[in-house]
């Protein structure tokens, strides 16, 4: 079994991350999203899974800033996207290791919520649910729009905006 270590991405990893995202997704939109998030200063955390033997990058998860309001007050929140693992490394828990590490780091950093747009069957195993995202005002609202409450609860008050970083608007335009 390949030995993988999860670590923060460094500037020198940018080319390999771009390559990974262009390999894992049919469109270049996700690669462009990560670049734009970084350029806009909206990338909060990028974790990579590195193959200890070959030094190759096997996977990536990115977390970006969101503007979220609860009861009229801002609530610290991030969006998880994209998540990608190179085909040769799939089905051995690499994505799970990346998501788990991202959750731990964002929880320790004090974020209240982590949002994701994806398959409930996959993200549900980490505790994401559409119920936790319900009531937030987002163009992505629906069964695939999920959230994870990182600190065990949310402040009282009506759920307001849940705005992704501006770079996501371009992704919505390019995705079918
Ligand atoms: C989705 C992806 C990140 C999973 O990576 P991985 O390292 O193989 O994931 P893990 O090993 O942690 O988990 C594998 C499990 O996830 C399940 N899974 C993978 N994609 C899934 C999906 N779209 N819906 C539901 N389950 C899914 C697999 O069936 C497998 O299930 P099992 O544990 O019951 O066998 C990888 O397949 C990938 O990069 N896909 C292309 C990019 C993509 O679609 N990213 C997600 C959206 S941003």
Helix and strand topology:
Layout: E1 4-8, H1 14-24, H2 29-40, E2 43-51, E3 57-70, E4 73-85, H3 94-108, E5 113-117, H4 120-123, H5 130-133, E6 145-149, E7 159-163, H6 167-174
Parallel strand pairs: 4-5
Antiparallel strand pairs: 1-2, 2-3, 3-4, 3-7, 5-6
Helix pairs in contact: 1-2, 2-6
Bound molecules: coenzyme A (COA).
Domain N-acetyltransferase: 4-151
Keywords: Transferase
Pfam families: Acetyltransf_9
Q: What does this molecule look like?
A:
Keywords: Transferase. The chain has 176 residues and is of the alpha+beta class. The protein has a single domain, classed as Gcn5-related N-acetyltransferase (GNAT) (Aminopeptidase, 3-Layer(aba) Sandwich). It contains 6 helices and 7 strands; from the N terminus they run βααβββαβααββα. Strands 1, 2, 3, 4, 5, 6 and 7 form a 7-stranded mixed β-sheet that branches. The mean pLDDT is 95. Bound molecules: coenzyme A.
Name the CATH architecture: 3-Layer(aba) Sandwich
List cofactors, ions and other ligands.
coenzyme A
CATH superfamily: Gcn5-related N-acetyltransferase (GNAT)
Low-confidence stretches at least 5 residues in length (pLDDT < 50)?
Answer: none
Task: Estimate percent helicity.
Answer: 25-40%
Based on helices, strands and strand pairing, what is the structural class? alpha+beta
């Amino acid at each position: 079994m390949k030995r993988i270590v999860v670590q923060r991405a460094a500037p020198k990893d940018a080319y390999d991350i771009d390559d990974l995202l262009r390999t894992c997704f049919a469109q270049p939109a996700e690669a462009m999203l990560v670049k734009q998030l970084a350029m806009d200063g909206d990338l909060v955390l990028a974790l990579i899974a590195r193959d200890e033997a070959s030094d190759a990058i096997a996977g990536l998860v990115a977390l970006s800033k969101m503007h979220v309001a609860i009861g009229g007050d801002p609530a610290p929140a991030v969006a998880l996207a994209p998540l990608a693992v190179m085909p040769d490394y799939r089905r051995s828990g690499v994505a799970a290791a990346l998501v788990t590490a991202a959750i731990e780091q964002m929880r320790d950093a004090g974020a209240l919520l982590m949002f994701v747009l994806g398959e409930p069957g996959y993200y549900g195993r980490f505790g994401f649910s559409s119920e936790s995202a319900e009531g937030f005002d987002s163009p992505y609202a629906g069964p695939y729009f999920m959230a994870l409450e990182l600190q065990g609860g949310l402040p009282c008050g009506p759920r307001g905006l849940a705005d992704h970083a501006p770079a996501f608007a371009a992704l919505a335009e390019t995705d079918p």
